[in-house]
Amino acid sequence: MLSKNKQKFILSLNRKKIRDQNGVFVAEGHKLVTDLLSSNCPVESLIATDSWLQSHASIVRDLPEIISATPETLKKISTLKSPPQVIGIFKQQASVFSFDALKDELCLLLDEVQDPGNLGTIIRLADWFGITNVFCSENCADVYNSKTIQSTMGAISRVAIHYVDASAFLKEYTSLNIPVYGTFLDGNNIYQQALKNQGLIVMGNEGKGISQEVEHYVTHRLFIPSFPSDIPTSESLNVSVATAITCAEFRRQAK
């Protein structure tokens, strides 16, 4: 039975401060929760209907805390429009990296990406394209925001997210003499460039693009052309869509 205090605590996890103080985040829904459990993401509590618990007895039997709740109770603590049958409280995972280990990797750096949905989608894209390290400037959206977590579709357990001072990070990264790619409206056609699968791809803010502070460190300026090039089109692409196109071209050239 889910107590009133526990309900209050779960609702309080909508606030970043409370999530960080407790070192946890909330995941909602069958697909997301089961993906995280199968990836051995450490869990603190699982709240679910009796029918869901009975159907998944084999994967929940060893969890530290399992709480039965009615659909009505789950609706009260859910952030989703359609209340889920299961909600999990998982532990935040510490992320560490070394610059030496990045030499042979393709990584992403997100410069002031503000929308949690965009951040979550980019993490999911990173997982799809085999990018295991995503770096976020300090004023990016919070990776443990509920909308971000939902948008990752479980990729949060397989991709390491690092919040860094972008300038300090890039200063040290560029000393490795590894390419830093960025997308710009005045860049070179991405489909006509020889792209390496060791380097850093920088994606900018939804409205302002890559900041001047970060642009200073970009060594290769890329542009995703519209088609056909001689007629008016949309002004720009959504940052997650642009990330998908960019990562796809890097991986295509790797074959």
Q: What's the main sheet like?
A: 6 strands, parallel
CATH superfamily of the largest domain: SPOUT methyltransferase, trefoil knot domain
What is the straight-line distance between the termini? 53 Å
Order of helices and strands: HHEHEHHEHEHEHEHEHEEHEH
Total of DSSP H or I helical runs spanning 4+ residues: 12
Model regions low in confidence, pLDDT < 50 over at least 5 residues: none
According to DSSP, the number of beta strands is 10
Mean pLDDT: 94
Q: Which architecture of the largest domain does the CATH hierarchy give at level 2?
A: 3-Layer(aba) Sandwich
* Amount of helix: 25-40%
Radius of gyration (Å): 20 Å
With strands numbered from the N-terminus, the spatial order across the biggest sheet is 7-6-5-9-8-10
Regarding quaternary structure, how should these chains be classified? Answer: single chain
- CATH domain class of the largest domain: Alpha Beta
DSSP strand (E) fraction? 15-25%
> How many domain units?
2
CATH topology of the largest domain: Alpha/beta knot
Query: So what's the overall shape?
Result: elongated
Counting helices, strands and paired strands, the structural category is: alpha/beta
Keywords:
6-stranded parallel beta sheet; alpha/beta; 60s Ribosomal Protein L30, Chain: A; 255 residues; 12 helices; 2 domains; 4-stranded mixed beta sheet; Alpha/beta knot; single chain
